C-alpha cells in the first residue's frame, strides 16, 4: 500500500494593497496588540521559503498559532485576522469606535480649540464623556497635557555629552568636579496683601499681584562628589562677577587638587578676562555642555530645589532680605549635603536621542 504523505501546505500570497494594510496594522499606534501580532505573522509567512516553525521562532509564538493565522488569511484575507464573534452580550463599544477616538486624538484637533476635551470628543464621536475618558486612560492619552523640549543644534553635541558624562562616571583622580552656573535675576517679590495661611479644608491663599523690590544673581558651583555648594551673590551678572566667583572657587578648593568646571555656553563664561584668568590658573579645566542642554549640568537640579523650597513661594520686601534667606538656605544645605546619582551613560543618552529623532522625523513610516 502506498504511503500517504503530508498534505501540501497552502501557498500564501499578499497583494501590494494587502501588504500596505498589514504594515500599517503592525505599526499603527491605534492597532490592538493582538491584531498587530497577526499582521506580523502574515507578513513573515509571505516571505519566500518561510516555514511555520521559522516564523514562530522569529515572531515569538507557537507553530499552531502561525498555522492558524496563515490559514485564516489564505481563506478570508484581511478580514480573517479579525477576532471571531464570541458568545455572550456584545460589547457596547465597538473596536471601530475605539480606533476612531484614538486616531482623532493622535492625528487631528477640533476646529475651535488646540486640543480635545472629553466634551468635544464625545460630541464628535457620539460616545459619552465617561467612555471617552476610559478610552484615553486605556491608551494613556492626555490631550490636555503638554511638555516642552529643546533639541540641541550644537555641532559638537556628541563630543560634549561624552566629555561631561564621562566626568560624572569617572572623575579624575586628585581633582574636584564642580558644576557651575548662575541663577540670574532672582526677584525680591512681595505680595500686595498678606498671605492667608493654610487651614483645614482650605489651601494657603495669596494675591496674584505683587510688588518688585529688585533683583540679585546667585553664582553656584555644585560638587558632584559630596553635594556641597560654593556660592556667591552679586547684584550684577557680568564676566567681572564670574571672574570673582572663579577666584572664590580657587580659594575654597585645596591647592593640591585640579578643578574641573562643567559650564554652559553663556557669553560671560568665554570673555577675554575670563580666558586670561583661566590661563593664569592651569589647574582649572573647563568642560562646556552642549548648547540647549542645561539638563546635563547637575547644578540646574540643585537650583530646582532652591526654587521649590524657598524662592517660588517666598515673600521679600528687599533684596537684602532675599539674599539673607538664600544664604541661610544654602548654609542648611551644606550642613547636610546630598550628592546626585547620575545613572545614564553617554551611550544611553545618545541612543535615546536617536530613537526620538527617528520618531519625530517619521522614519520607517
3D structure, described in words:
This protein is of the alpha/beta class. It has a 5-stranded mixed beta sheet with strand order 3-2-1-4-5, with helices on both faces. The longest helix is centred in the C-terminal third of the chain and has 17 residues, at 319-335. The protein is 44% helix and 13% strand. The chain contains 13 helices and 5 strands. It has helices spanning 16-27, 33-45, 52-59, 63-76, 95-107, 118-125, 129-138, 157-169, 239-252, 272-280, 298-311, 319-335, 346-361; strands at 175-191, 210-223, 229-234, 258-263, 284-288. The protein is elongated. The protein has 3 domains: 16-81; 95-138; 157-195 and 209-348, Ribonuclease H-like superfamily/Ribonuclease H (Nucleotidyltransferase, domain 5, 2-Layer Sandwich). The model has no long low-confidence stretch (mean pLDDT 81).
| CATH C-level name of the largest domain | Alpha Beta
Considering DSSP H and I runs of 4 or more, what fraction of the residues is helical? 40-55%
Give, in order, the helices and strands. Answer: HHHHHHHHEEEHEHEHHH
For this structure, what is the CATH homologous superfamily of the largest domain? Ribonuclease H-like superfamily/Ribonuclease H
Morphology call: elongated
| Class by alpha and beta content | alpha/beta
Number of strands: 5
Strand adjacency order, main sheet: 3-2-1-4-5
Uncertain regions: pLDDT < 50 for 5+ in a row? none
Structural Rg = 31 Å
The CATH topology of the largest domain is given as: Nucleotidyltransferase, domain 5
Distance from N terminus to C terminus (CA atoms, Å) equals 56 Å
Count of the domains: 3
Largest sheet: 5 strands, mixed
Strand content: 5-15%
CATH architecture of the largest domain: 2-Layer Sandwich
Number of helices: 13
Mean pLDDT: 81
